[in-house]
Amino acid sequence: MKPVVGYVLLGLASFLIFLALLAPATLLADQFGQRLSGFSAQAVEGSAARGSMSGVHWHGLRIDRLSWRWRPLALLAGRLEFSLRSDDPELMLTGDAAFGFNRRLQFRQLVGQLPVGRLGQLAASNKLPVDGVVAFDLPALELNAS
């Protein structure tokens, strides 16, 4: 009887993993919309494990295309991690984003550039007294849940 229970639990775990991997990307976009006020995307395609959003808007910031790919090995460290890439002429961004048990959002190897005006939109400051482009190369950035 013990081997049967083990096989049933293994089968159930496998089913749940494959169900999560094959979930449509719209479920992920809907979660972003519920948790981030003002977030919207015009088109979403792919799966929760690998997909993209087009026409992303958040706090007045617009990104033409945002793509992600799930990094399953990060689960061994207790993190849900994705590789991110934006395809936008003004906002170029690549890096890894992770959410762990400590409820902190962690970014690793975050590289990109952002016009100063868009940075002001994210910082809730309408107009910054400078103009230009901010380039960044951050090995690690950690944000609290609050």
Could you please describe the fold and organization of this structure?
There is one protein chain. The protein is of the alpha+beta class and 146 residues long. It has one domain. The protein contains three helices and seven strands. It has a seven-stranded antiparallel β-sheet, covered by helices on one side. A hairpin with a 4-residue loop joins strand 4 and strand 5. The longest helix is centred in the first third of the chain and has 20 residues, at 2-21. The radius of gyration is 18 Å and the shape is elongated. The protein starts with a helix and ends with a strand. The mean pLDDT is 84.
In short:
The chain is of the alpha+beta class and 146 residues long. It contains three helices and seven strands, in the order ααββββββαβ. A seven-stranded antiparallel beta sheet has the order 1-2-3-4-5-6-7, covered by helices on one side.
Question: SSE layout and pairings?
Answer:
Layout: H1 2-21, H2 25-35, E1 43-46, E2 50-58, E3 61-70, E4 79-87, E5 92-100, E6 105-115, H3 116-122, E7 133-143
Antiparallel strand pairs: 1-2, 2-3, 3-4, 4-5, 5-6, 6-7
Q: Which features would summarize this protein structure in a list?
A:
single chain, 146 residues, alpha+beta, seven-stranded antiparallel sheet, 3 helices, 7 strands, elongated
Q: Strand order of the main beta sheet, please?
A: 1-2-3-4-5-6-7
Order of helices and strands: HHEEEEEEHE
Spans of at least 5 consecutive residues whose pLDDT stays below 50 are: none
- Strand percentage lies at 35-45%
How many helix segments? 3
The SS-based structural class is alpha+beta
